Amino acid sequence: MKSTNTIVIASLLLGFTLSSTVFANSSGASVQGEYTQLEVGKNLERTMKNLSKEKSAGGAEQWFFYEVDMEPNNGMPCCFMSEVRSGDVKFKENEMGCDLDKRSNSWGSSHQRNIVDSKTLSIYYHWKEGELNDMFLAGSECPVYTGKSQLTQLTGVRSSQSLAYLVTLAEKTKSKSNRRSANHAIAGIALHQGDSAHVALEKIANSNSKSKSHDAIFWLGVARNEAGYHSLAKIVDDSSRSEKSKKQAVFALSQNSSDKATSKLVELVKQNQSAKIQGEALFWLAESKSPQAFGLIKDILDGAGDDKLSKKAVFALSQIQSTDSNTLLRKIALSHSSSKVQKEAIFWLSQESKNSPLDLLINIATGKAHKNIREHAVFAISQLKGDEGINGLIHLLKSDSDRSVKKKALFWLGQSEHPKALSFIEKTLVSDTDS
User: Fold this and answer.
1) Which class would CATH give 258-355?
2) What is the pLDDT of residues 406-418, one digit of tens each?
3) Domain boundaries in the chain?
4) d(C-alpha 69, C-alpha 77), whole Å
5) Same fold, 258-355 and 358-435
6) Which helix (H) or strand (E) is 205 found in, with range?
């Protein structure tokens, strides 16, 4: 058995009671290593600040954590190791686990590996010489390796106590360190269970601070389930909200777990008066693989609506990557009432990886379309990967294409450092010199 560490402090002054060192997994958290338990007093921040000052006398940096109930349907918050090892522990790439000694890990929430949603949320705070330096969030089955760091679990922390402190952190954004803590604090608020957390998050989402507001809007969609949907619906329907806030809310709706969120996005595409919001909703419907996306896109492209919305519809169409979407994209590339929309389709067709568009692009470049369309098709051919684009440009130069098309083909061939392109240009120059 490991030896017990004793901390000598003025317990009455700081407002907590002493306890001895405990071991991994004695609480809901998956702490890997030795840590100390102390009961928190009335003031959470003051407890950590005073303990940090007391313990920092020996030069050690302090970590504190506590647990609260977590909002359902939020996976397992954790760090994901980019390093191959942590102390004596070896990891695979993206292995779950937070290292207190080396806080260079990425953070997110995992629904993989058949891990059930965490019922508790652990919030870790790094204090140095009486000042908060870092923080992160972890679920009950997220391994947290203490290493050489000193860690104290604060017991008896109420959810209301935690929320009150996190709200104060969310309001502090003067320094880079403050802003980082504010971002984590907003995430922490979102992951707390209960109506009080939702009210606090919604209040931040409605604040005048754009960065904090947008962070809170994101978490309303990601973490707050049905209640989050209703908050986001109010934002996108509020005529006083900025377009940027509404676009953030549209994205957040696409991440929301409520079945009503998809219906709201469809409604925005069909009825919203802003082409930008319509396009944003359409794009995220396509990204989320909604079966309704293709029909909405087709209706927009078959009509004679706003060019900006139609171009957004083309982009969304290119993201679906189905047989039907590819067929429609090719149709728009061949012909559309708007040259801007047609050029958009030609470009995104060149980004297609499954079905080669080379023959179609050559037909457009050598056909009877407007000069701008034909030249744009040449550019699209130059964007094709590997030898295909080079072969297409060389084909145009050898064909009976008009002068403007050949000129563009030679220009884009000259921009390439592909050996085949350089060889063709060199042979052409030698041939012209000989003649």
Assistant:
1) mainly alpha
2) 999 999 998 988 8
3) 258-355, 358-435
4) 13
5) yes
6) helix 195-205
